[in-house]
Amino acid sequence: MSNFYETMLNNNLGRSLLKNVGLPTPIELKRYNPNQETYFEGKVLIGTSKGGALLNDLMRNLKEAKATVYFPAAAQTAADILAAADKAGVRAIGVETKKGMAEKFDALVFDASGFESGADLNQLYYFFNPVMRQLNSNGRVIVLGRPHMKAKTGEQAAAMRALEGFTRSVAKEIGKKSANATSVYVEEGAEANMDSAFRFVISAKSAYMDGQVLTVSKADANTYPDWHKPLAGKVALVTGAARGIGEAIARTLARDGAKVVGLDIPPAEADLSRVMAEIGGEVLLADISSKEAPQQISDKLKELGGGDVIVHNAGVTRDKMLANMPEHWWNMTIDINLLAEEHINDALIANKTINKGASIICVSSMNGIAGQVGQTNYAASKAGVIGYVQYMAPELAKKGITINAVAPGFIETQMTDAIPFMTREVGRRLNSLSQGGKPVDVAETIAFFGNPASNGVSGNVVRVCGQSLVGA
């Protein structure tokens, strides 16, 4: 897809012109590389709070990476880090962390699970302050903690909730490096379920997911599958798969090994057939808002042994100020963007077409979180998706099914190409990473939710927006 801004960055005159009009020059994001042996390659600095409970699991994961592990040699918890590294069979190197030090890092990871009150937050300062300038471009800052609503005291809840504010602010500080920051909350007893979340956020697959929070809950633990083919042997349904984000989702899930059933409306048959032919997928033509669609989908998935990943991506916009909006525009938007997903899920569950251990992923929007002028219908439908996901997560957990939502921000598609040039270029820069995302960025997050090892990740709503300045 053409990007005039990126073209101009390739010559000195273009860079000078864009600088003069006040548009920042972004560092290109590093995304998934199929030639990379494992999920992370580089230098990582590890820190932990007193009593950090996730250190052993952190080291266990790094054992599977091509990571060079460092730790602050003078930290009070240095012995704990060394002990965890020895247990995992990881070589950890002690370094003096100070401003101006020679060593640079690709990731800074801190286990804050041992925090008991706000007084412990100074440990974040002592670990991060000397090394923030040592983070490489496209680096990662990850803080691990416990869900604040399951804390043992109000003081501990405050400390854990503080981690979110910390990482969201750090994300804004390091965005100019195209680096991102994430909080990962791991419920007590869910340590064995954290692998998928940790590996995703430290990897290049999370390039455009910035300033976000993931929560990992207790569930049956699955061994992490092959990094490049985590969905091998799985069947995935993707609605709205003919083009744009839906096409990218279908291609990414197929890349990860899934057999994809691509669904779209009959007028999109040519595009859908082309995409499915290229990825070895199955074509399903249907209007998801029709009464017949849920059964059609159920029957198709049954032919393939049931569905393992259900992606509700299809949606419409019918934008107009509320005072001028026709009734049928309102109803169409709600029917397609919200009610159709509910009806399809109901049918798949009732017909036992969705397999145990399956994942449901719903595509919301940052406008469902922040709202937007002229989008009362669209924002209501996408906010409804979030409410549905959060309510259904504990209900579906009883059936061994996860459900999560992805809320995209400014993603480069044919629709954004049609926006007037300067409006589009400014819009691209209204986030911490100062650039628009690509459809594959949304797809990578969906693939993470669909990973069999993500069965402890449910009820999450994640924005893939480069930490947009709009909304929460």
TrEMBL record:
One Pfam family named in its UniProt record: adh_short_C2
Single GO MF annotation: oxidoreductase activity, acting on the CH-OH group of donors, NAD or NADP as acceptor
UniProt feature coiled coil, ranges: none
Domain Ketoreductase positions: 234-409
InterPro entries, A to Z: KR_dom, NAD(P)-bd_dom_sf, SDR_fam
Similarity remark: Belongs to the short-chain dehydrogenases/reductases (SDR) family.
Protein name: 3-oxoacyl-[acyl-carrier protein] reductase
Organism per entry: Thalassolituus maritimus
